[in-house]
Amino acid sequence: MDNTLEAQHKQLNESTLLDLFKENPERAKQFSLKVDELYFDFSKNHINDNVMATLFDKANKQELSTAIESLFAGEQVNNTEKRAALHTALREPKNDSDSSSIVQAALEKMDNFVESIHQQHWLGHTSKAIDTVVNIGIGGSDLGPRMVTQSLSAFHHPQLTVHFVANIDGADLEDTLSTLNAETTLFVIASKTFTTLETLNNALSARQWMLDAGCQQNDLQKHFVAISSNIQAANEFGIAEENIFPLWDWVGGRYSLWSSIGLPIALAIGMNGFRELLHGAHIMDAHFRQAPLNSNMPVIAALLSYWYNQYWGCSAHAVLPYAQRLNRLPAYLQQLDMESLGKRVNKSGAAVTTSTGSIIWGAEGTNGQHSFHQLLHQGTQLIPVDFIAVKKSMSNYKDQHQHLLACCISQSQALLQGKTLGQAEEELRVQGLSDDDIQQLAPHKVIPGNKPSNTILLDELTPKNLGALIAFYEHKVYATSVLLGINAFDQWGVELGKQLGKPLYHALTTEECNTEWDSSTIEIIKQLHS
Ligand code: F6P
């Protein structure tokens, strides 16, 4: 028997997911896992024992277990920047390693600061307590902290509101500041490099806003703290060294919410909550590091992604959290996954011959059902889905929670089973339609089904479980990068736009155009000046 993945794709493409369920009544039990309070059902996928065995062979050929160990051991997995990617060290319990002592010291610094804000010991320039925090950062210095802070609103400190500003569009800052009181507002300038255009400009405007509101220059330090690995630049901006929270080059931007970059999270939910988040991630780390590949949640998720991406022609993956508070999760995962896996060369620099990262998109259920789910059900592209739901209700409207869960399950069921022409015709007959009308309408009501999905259930939306969920996705991305042979930790592609932006800014502010630019660019600039 031809056991290649190509041959298995051909074979499975001839049967349906429903056939697979009929053949094996134990399928859901066989293709599901539980790690702590996260249940992962991957039974609604085009897989069987043979496919999984071949995918595990592939993982072994790519030496995935060794690669996992290299990640945790702090080897230079980011070869183009000659760096380790030790975000897992940020959530390790205290130990004797060098990284542990600096991580613990940073946590302690955060702890003291959070306490001083919560206990109202830290006062603004008019001696009023801080009740509002504005995090200014972008990319990894925004998406993770923003998503986690929003997701954990049930745990927020009652006297503190946390806002996030990212965009260079001044409207973002302006809209946020319009309702705030400078006397009680603290800005957290979050930038690993402290060179990022958006963050530096927003920070300068925020500083001016504070001065315009009557704060004296020498009181600015009561309203500005920074998180950066570039102490000098943060210092030059005017932030006192003791108010700069550290970050290290072995923590990638999109993997940094566990570091001081998580300060807005800690301010919102307290340090105990933040430590719980780290603990949850550590539970997933330990699982990823120790579990055999064939019962390893992030590894299996990565293999499924690889399977669909390489053999089923899938170029997109939908993430559908059935939890309102997780509605920033798809945006967060877009950076994590697409910045990590959107690569065109392998680790040695040779062009890849297969496709790499998928387009990650999605929105919270049930809202998405009334928007883009139509394309999932009847569009012509095959788009695997992750459904994410939470067992325990997040509101006091308990019955609505049961509706929410029912909607989530019904969507994965509808994707699985679809509706045949015969079923559509019968439905219309029961409704009393004429034969002619049935013939015309029935084809439109056919839903092919046979669409794959995973379902992830969290017992409860707690800091610990959210930490585990995020770490699950981080490790899935890393394992996928190993299967593809690419570097998950660099992002050279984003640099070109930044380089080109400088002369264009010059052209827009001086009207001096480079005549060698393409005529479209020159014309757009002219239009903007007209
Ligand atoms: O533009 C990409 C990027 O480099 C991300 O990888 C990073 O998270 C973001 O910019 C922000 O960078 P910084 O924290 O240095 O401001």
Quick structural gist:
This protein has 530 residues and is of the alpha/beta class. The longest helix is centred in the middle third of the chain and has 28 residues. Helix content is 49%, strand content 10%.
Structure description:
The protein is an alpha/beta fold and 530 residues long. It has 20 helices and 11 strands. The chain has a 6-stranded mixed β-sheet with strand order 1-2-11-10-8-9, with helices on both faces. It has a 5-stranded parallel β-sheet with strand order 4-3-5-6-7, with helices on both faces. Strand 1 and strand 2 form a beta hairpin. Helix 12 crosses helix 18. The longest helix is centred in the middle third of the chain and has 28 residues, at 263-290. The termini are far apart. The structure holds 6-O-phosphono-beta-D-fructofuranose.
SSE inventory with pairings:
Layout: H1 5-13, H2 17-23, H3 27-30, E1 32-35, E2 38-41, H4 49-61, H5 64-73, H6 98-118, E3 132-136, H7 143-151, E4 161-165, H8 170-177, E5 185-190, H9 197-212, E6 224-228, H10 231-237, E7 244-246, H11 263-290, H12 297-311, E8 316-322, H13 329-341, E9 359-361, H14 373-378, E10 385-390, H15 398-417, H16 421-430, H17 435-445, E11 453-458, H18 463-484, H19 493-510, H20 519-529
Parallel strand pairs: 3-4, 3-5, 5-6, 6-7, 8-9, 8-10, 10-11
Antiparallel strand pairs: 1-2, 2-11
The chain binds 6-O-phosphono-beta-D-fructofuranose.
